[in-house]
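A student in our group prepared the protein record below, which I am reviewing. I have pasted the whole thing underneath without changing anything:
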Amino acid sequence: MVQKYESPVRIYKYPFELVVAAYERRFPTCPQMPIVLDCEIIEDSVYDDGARRDTKRRCKIAVEAPYLIKKIIGVDVVFFIQKNFLDMKTRTLNIEATNESFATRVEIFEKCRYYAHPENPDWTCFDQTATLDIKNFFGIEHSMEKMGMKQYTQTTLKGKEIIEYFVNELKQEGITHVDRWAAEEIANSTTAPSTNAALPEKPPLCRDNSILDADYIAKYLGQLTPLQESKLVQLRKRFEHGTSEHPEPDYQTLLRFLRARDFSIDKATGMLQESLQWRKEHRIDDILSEYKTPAVVEKYFPGGWHHHDKDGRPLYILRLGTMDVKGLLKSVGEDELLKLTLHICEEGLKLMKEATKLFGKPIWNWCLLVDLDGLSMRHLWRPGVKALLRIIETVEKNYPETMGRVLIVRAPRVFPVLWTIVSTFIDENTRSKFLFFGGPDCMHAEDGIEQYIDTDKIPSFLGGSCNPSILTVVESIPAKLYTRCFLSVCHCTLIHEGGLVPKHLYKSESIEENNGAIHAHDHHGLYKAIDLKPGQMFELLICNTDPKSVLTWDFEVLKNDTLFAVYHTEKELEQSGTDDFSSVFDAPDFKEGTNYKKIEQSVKCRPKEGVQGSHEMASTGTYVLQWMCPPSCDGPAQLMYFHEILSSANYKGSMTSLQSGFSSNSLQSR
């Protein structure tokens, strides 16, 4: 799918020639664009007595992506080719940029234009278009499309800031005017300062005659400026004639899509049209009446609606730390988890309308409380992360501006790894609504959740008095009516504690290993295979020179039992495969507790068990990952493993307190 971007026309209240002089100063690098590491001129030609100049540059760009994604693509920098076509006679500068790196997998084309304002020759206009077409990118095309276009949008917003910066720099040097090109003059000559009378700004958009009723706005929509109200009415007119297939969206829906696109009518129209088509194709309007929750989800999915927050928003609680991500995916599949999420979102839309009526004020988003107690590296199982990214992408496209506040409670030290990966794909405005509570007492701590949720509504597992795992008043109410009654009766609904999904509930066609090959999270050869005879061991030696970096591992036992442990010594050791039946620590100069120690206790891993873990490498020296097939086994053990070192520089400020996720806990991921 080709992603397109088009910026609105930007106006600089400076002459074209001064803007071009400022533009040239951004090369080869500029402080506002730290991702541009270098720009090298590879071709430069001047024509027509200096009136025209064609310049070709090769630009080196730093890859701004989560570390694990950079690991998958295998590069830290990419190269772009930029071509500039400057015509001082017509006062235009056309710019084209295409990617040189990954050109067979990705096509990026950007076109920019600076030109003299058609009505005020002393002003300069700028417009920009870009397309992104990811054909084949290591299996993460959709996520990369979203991340690429979002980062591209953020970067282009800096364009005006850059020009203003260098215009001011020119002024500080006494350059406030650059003469227009003439055949007998040098185009870039400078003269004394001059002033120009600026034309008046255009008046704001006039208010539409068919305005909304003030009482309706106050009760159902909230405070709107006259301009916002006018744009809401204009957007409504574009969708006035609804059909049975495409019902006319209500004002609350229109307003959410307008807010998501900064009240741009055209952009909101496109986004809403795509969403309405998506709803039709997937029969979303029928999901509340037709969706049947799978039995395994009812029993093991740890989430549910629970009262409301202090602002009246419907409150949804998700106990992610106790959720068996792998078990749910293997038992119901990715599509079913997405459908469950959409059902929750549709419930949320309905509850917002009920809350609006109940509290007599506009409630147009909900509150999400995520309990991360129990979160470990097992939650970073790659198919699970992939499913999560797909869910986030779908929700952000079709349910914009529905998340009013996200409370992340009891966030463990492993959480920054997951957040670093996932946050890249969350809209910046949504990210600003996240509040984090890392300690065990998230209720009574300073600025705790009591300021957002009434004490008698806080669940007992967070220190409150409400027990959402027990049905007292509403136990006779059918499950489908829970959401209808919870706001009015103000009692708890059922939220399961999660737990491991039994293997006999797994579907054979779901994410599964076939004949010993882990296709689901192979990631293009990142995993390596090991065969160990009874009594044989394999030791992976990691020499660490980066204190506070993080060692992570992920392995799956395919056949027979395997013992796993992690050791550390301050000595620098080299990988050696001379004797697979003895350890490097069997040498006479090693003594456990004296010059080496076990930093992760030995665990016994059985076939089909996956283990993920991490350890902050607080000091230098050698860290040893050790796998061993017990001598008592009746045959060889087989496993696939992957390890990675997350440098302290990449996670500075968010990873400094990360400690081991402990393999024993990771064994819950089956």
Remarks:
- The chain has a mean pLDDT of 78.
